[in-house]
Model the fold of this input.
Amino acid sequence: MRLILLGAPGAGKGTQANFIREQFGIPQISTGDMLRAAVKAGTPLGLEAKAIMDAGGLVRDDIIIGLVKERITEADCKNGFLFDGFPRTIPQAEAMIAAGVEIDYVVEIDVPDANIVDRMAGRRVHVASGRTYHIKYNPPKVEGIDDETGEPLVQRDDDKEEVVLKRLGVYHEQTEILVSFYGKMAASGDAKAPKYIKIDGTQAVDAVREQTLKALGA
Done:
């Protein structure tokens, strides 16, 4: 089971990634994790990436693809892998194909922007414990106060509406084109093209999980 998970920030990809990972016994791979591991291990690609990051630059796609090829040969990937947040751009997707990295499924968790803003901007957190509330869907007993400690809840900077909208803008500009890229591949009739699955992410978490795993043949 080799798959890519697509969807806007706040669409619930992380939650569904955990379900998929547990169901199929595959690791979830992010470029951030790969970079940190390669830097820590002091591999040639890791050292090259570290030099770029230390200089404040963006790690080149050829280095990222090299890390991907190394990572998927490790023992925990023998049953497959799940890419979350990668590829982010068409050049990265094309580089993966050129490098011979085969993918079975591309799963898109589709949630309209308005729903994402509603979800994220309404979140409130008790910092010390990590307990999370929502002003509309899971409110605390007393507004702005943690149920258990009586301490104030906060809104994370990442959850503020203006930040959420900015992140959504970046997604639409840079990453959303992957939806049509992989959709066209799936419709091309190419036997090696990954199957494309679109799931309505506005449903309850369990419904999204059930539909996703069923579509993946679980």
Remarks:
- Strands lie at 2-6, 28-29, 81-84, 105-110, 123-126, 131-134, 195-200.
- The radius of gyration is 19 Å.
- The chain has a mean pLDDT of 92.
- Residues 110 and 201 are 5 Å apart (CA to CA).
